[in-house]
Design a protein that fits this description.
It contains 13 helices and two strands. It is mostly helical and about 325 residues long.
Amino acid sequence: MPAISLYYRLPALHSYKRLKGESHMYYIQLLINGISLGSVYSVIAIGFTLIFSILKFSNFSHGGVMVVSAYFGYVLSTKLNLGFFPTLLMVSVFGALVAVVVQYIGFDRIRKSDGNVMLLFVSSATLGTLLQNIIVITFSSTYYSYPKFFTTSFVKIGNFTVGVTDLMMLVFSTICIVVLMYVLYKTRLGISIRALSMDANTTQLMGINASFVIAVTFMISGCLAGVAGMFLGISYSLYPQLNALVFKGMIASILGGLGNISGALYGGLLLGVAEVFLTNFVGASLMPVFTFLFSIIFLLVRPQGISGKFTLEKV
């Protein structure tokens, strides 16, 4: 299985050798790549965090939704010859629908019966494995590649070279995050979601339909999973274990402050930048080890994460 890193998609080697002669520009180039990578990690982390903030469990089925959406985008782009933008739109809608179905099958009844949170966790892990195995049965373990959506692979911005895919990831991830933040902080639905994450019982007593809000939250989470899945599918060769990248989202959400939406954004960016710089200094093979060491040291220094608040378990 390929290393869980997008760093191998770097601009042409001669460009990097040229920039290495100008160390400050070289590190700025690394920072640009890290932010592009981190923006996708942020999208994964925010989708992961949205569910955790309300139901207080780690939703590993999020990775299954992500990989199923990535393959759905592959089918649309190869069999129906859809372009980048129509494919991205359809994949985001598909991810939202799959997430809602997963929520009703795996979590709705357990939640309504006040089941132990561990049951939600087990159900999420089981559904994530089920979705992955559906992909294996349908597509086997063969590797697939998205078609080339763009006529050029890299663009020059001043003295820097940026991959078109990286640029699109950054742009669309930013759009998704900005729209989500607007919904969460400027709309009645967003207020309901945030209120439910703080105190579900009181929120329901105030007349908010918790089942509806949770379903919409899963739709938003699934939409983000679809967007992230397609970009990861474009960046990697498609393979069923692509859902393992949900652990990146989990790490990013922990770094940002578990259960905190804005923290997930910062954690994803931090993780992406850290991975790119670590790959540069220690190599791709050792990067996962040093990434986990970095995460452990960071949490030892600041256990509450970037957001600065501890997430307390509700009783």
